Structures are given as C-alpha cells and as structure tokens.
Amino acid sequence: MTIPVMLPQMTEEQQATFNMYYPSTQRDEIVGVLLAVLLGSFGAHHFYLKRNGLGIVYLALFWTGIPAILGIIEAFFMPDRVRRFNAEQATQLAYSVVHGATLPPPPTPMVGCPACGMVQNAGARYCVQCGRPMM
Ligand SMILES: [Zn+2]
Q1: Euclidean distance between CA atoms 33 and 15, whole angstroms
Q2: What pLDDT does 16 receive?
Q3: Of the candidates 129, 104, 103, 97, which has an alpha carbon nearest to the alpha carbon of residue 114?
Q4: Cβ neighbours of residue 99 under 8 Å, at least 6 residues apart?
Q5: How far is CA 99 from the centre of its chain?
Q6: Distance 107 CA to ligand 1 centre (A)
Q7: pLDDT tens profile 84-126
Q8: Is residue 107 within 8 Å of residue 97, measured between CB atoms?
C-alpha cells in the first residue's frame, strides 16, 4: 500500500533542493518496527517519528510494563506509520521549497578518500581510515 503524496509542481532547481533534503527527513520502516519491539517500553518508536508527547508518556510509564506490551502490538502498525510520516515530511518539504521558506543548512556533503575510498565529511582534512590528506 502506498500513501499518495501531493507534491506541488517544482522547477528543476526546486527538485534538486528537495532531493538534497529529503533523505535526511526520511524514516526507515524496519528501524521503526525494531524500535517498537526492542525499545518500545521507552517510547523510542514514538520519538523516532517525532511523536515526542507520546514518547514521554511511554518513558514515564515504562516501569509498569504496559508500554512494552503496547510497543509489540504497535510494531505491526509501524510500517504504515513510517510511510505516512515520510509522505508528510515530503509534502511539507516540497511546500517549503516551492514557497521559498528558509531551510536549515543542508546535510554535510560526503566525499570518498582518494587513497582508500573511505566515505567521510567533505570538510575533513585527513582520512579517518588511512590518515592521508584529503585533497
Ligand atoms: Zn583513506
């Protein structure tokens, strides 16, 4: 089942901006399920989808064991919740891009080390793996 995403018409430049930001806002269905099963007692799966209010309630009640049971039940709903979350993020981001809203600084670009190929932040002076200067 796919959630339809209503995206406004974007110019190529806006599309490029969208593509630069979107991966960092996306959430993963598998991670969502695992968080609900393994760390559901602490509300981790709610914090993951920015439902901080619910997360805090779970965290406060973790000692009762109830959030752990809820987490296991909710694991079944997580893939759908994650897809909805991603669709909402995409829609919000697309409207921000189209309407020229101020966006946070883009995620740090990554580059590969010329010597060993280790991927790291573009600003790094030396490779974290082989120690050679990054040019
Ligand atoms: Zn290297």
Answers
A1: 30
A2: 86
A3: 129
A4: none
A5: 23
A6: 22
A7: 999 999 988 888 888 877 776 666 677 888 889 888 887 888 9
A8: no
Which of 99, 129, 96 is CA-nearest to residue 112?
129
The pLDDT assigned to 1 comes to: 45
Question: How many C-beta neighbours within 10 Å does residue 53 have?
Answer: 10
Euclidean distance between CA atoms 90 and 82, whole angstroms: 12
128 C-alpha to center of ligand 1: Å?
A: 7
What pTM value is reported for the model? 0.68
Tokens encoding 93: 């981001």
Q: Provide the CA 30 distance to its chain's centre, in angstroms.
A: 12
Q: Which residues have CB less than 5 Å away from ligand 1 (the ion)?
A: 113, 115-116, 118, 127, 129-130
How far does residue 135's CA lie from ligand 1's centre (Å)?
Answer: 11
Do 71 and 51 contact (CB within 8 A), yes or no?
no
Do residues 132 and 46 make contact, with C-beta atoms less than 8 angstroms apart? no
